[in-house]
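Two records follow; treat each independently.
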Amino acid sequence: MRFAFIVLMLFESVCCIGQQPQPQLEPNVLLREIPASVPFRTCDGISEEIELSRFKRQALQSVSLSGGYTHDVGGSGLSSSYIDLSVGSGIPLGSFDNIVGVKPKFRVDWIDADPNIDIPSELYQFELQFFYRRPIHDRLSAMAIFSPSVRSDLTTSDNAFRVFALGLLNWECVPDRLTLSGGAVYLGRADLPVLPALGMMWTPNRMTRLDLRFPTSKLSRRLAKDGGRSETWTYLSAGLGGNTWAITRDTTATDEVSLRDFSLRLGIEKIVDGGGGCFADAGYAFSRQLEYENDDSEVKLDDAILFRCGWSY
C-alpha cells in the first residue's frame, strides 16, 4: 500500500501544480482562487446558488492562526509541534479579479527528538509572500507567487535565506467545471529541485471538488451550506510535507537540515463569505526522513500520527 501511494505522489509531483509547501497552508488557500459556489446546469435549466465572495472589500484580507502536532509512533524518537501566524492584505488593480496580495508570515517548529538526533529544539521561518493574479482572457488567467523567507534555528545565517516561486497559467477549459494549470515551481528546499507545475481542478457538481495539485492534492465533499454566509466541507488529502532550515550542528559546524514525509489526512473545514473560516484534520505520515546537506547523510524516521487545526478571519 505504501509503495502504491508513493508512486501516486511521484505522479502528482510531476502532474500537479505547486503551492507553498512550508509551512503547511490552510486547506482552502488555493480553493479560494475560484468561486466557492457557482451555477450548475440541470435538466430543467440553470440551478443558481448564492456564491461566497472570495475576497473582502477592504485592504485587510485575512488574519490566520494555525497549529499542529506530529507524534512519532515508533522508536525513532522525533516528534514536533508548530504554530503559524500570518496577516494578508489585498490591493485590487481595477477589479477584484486583478489583485496584488502581500502576506507576512511567521512560523516556529518545536522539535522533541532523542539526544542522538542532531537537530535543534526550535526552528523558525520568517516569510513575506507576494501574490498576483491577472485575467488574460475570459477563461484564461495568470498567477504568480514569490515568497522570500529566512528559515533557521537563529544561530546562523549561512544559507538561511530561501525563496519560493511559482508561475502558472490557468485555463478554464470547461466553464464552472474543469480548470487546467501549467507552469513551474521552485520550492526553496535543499532536498527538492525546480519542478514542473501542472494541475487540475475538477468540479463535477456543486457538492464535490477534486483538486490535483502539488504538494497536496485533495478530494472535497460539501456537507452543508448556509445561503451566502458559509459552507462546510469534509476532505481527504494526500501530500508531501517538510522544510529546509539552516542550523548549527552539535559539532558547531553550520549545515542545512531537511525534514520530509508523505501523509494522508482526513478533515473538516468551514468557509465563510469573504474567505475566512476554520479547519481541523488528523492523519498519518510515513516515509519520514531527516537529511543533512553538507555530508549528504540521512536519518530514517518512523511513522507518525498528525493533528492540525486553524482559524482565519
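The next record belongs to a different protein.
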Amino acid sequence: MAFQLAKNYTALLDEVYKAASVTADLVGDQSMVKAGANVNEICYPQLDVTGLGDYDRNEGYTTGAVDLKWATSKFNYDRGTKITVDVMDDEETFNLAFGKAGAELIRTKVAPEGDAFTFATLAAVEGISVADPKTFADAVEFLAELIKAKNTMDELEVPEEGRILYATPTLLNGVMALDTTKSREILNSFTLKKKVPQGRFYTAIDLLSGKDDEEAGHYRKAAEGRDINFMIVHKPALIKFDKHVAHDVIPPELNPSSDGYILKYRKYGLVDVYKNKAAGIYLSYKEA
C-alpha cells in the first residue's frame, strides 16, 4: 500500500464516497433466538394456533391448540481481513494513514458487502413473491409495479407496518419526482424507503476468497445474478444478526512479522427468513 507524502502539513488522503450500510435497519431482536445444539446454528420460535370452532350452548367452547416449534438455521456469513500499515507510511502522512484505513475498510468494503449479501440471500429464499423480470422504461412503470407489489403483499395479509422499500436511486428518485397524489400515497405506505446503489443490488453474488486469483477479496455479481430493481422487506419476516464482530488493533511493537500497525476485522452472522413468513419479501429484478 503506497501513500504520498503529506506536504505543508495538509491532510491529503483521498476519501471514497460510499454510503454506509443500507440494511442496518434489518438487524433483528437477538432475544428472539437461542443457541442451537451446535455452535454454528441458532434456534428461533415458530408459533401457530388453531382457528375458531362452533360454540355449543350446552358443551361450550371447542378445544384449540397452540403449536410452538423451534426451527434451526445455520450461520451463513463468516468473513474477515487483516490489513497492515507500515509505521513510516503512517508517520509520513502525519498519523492519518492507519486511522483512515480502518474507516475506509468499513465504509467501502464491509458495509457494501454486508448489504449485497443480505439482498442476494433474501432473493434466493424459497416462497417469496417474485415479479416477472422487467426493465422499467420510466418512473410511471415503476410506480405501477409498486402498486402491484403492494396489492400482492396486502392480499397475502403481510402487515403494512414495518415494510421497507429498497430501490435503486434512479427508480426511487424518479417516482419521488412524479410528486402526484398516487405516488405520494404509495411511498408513504412504507415505514422506510432506502436507496440501494446497483452495485450492491443483485439476486446472486460471489464472495471472493481473498486468496490466489481473488486476493483483492470483497464480492462480485455472480454469473447467474440479475440486477434488482426493488425489494420490499417486512422486517419481522427476517432473522438478521451478527453473533460475533471483532476488530482489533495490533501496534508495531507486538507485530512479529513487520514494522507496521495491524487492523483485524471479522464478522460472523446470519441472514435468513422465518420459514412461515416468506410472504414478507417481494422481489423485482431486471430482464436478462
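Discussion point: The chain has one domain: 75-285. How would you locate this feature using only the C-alpha cell line?
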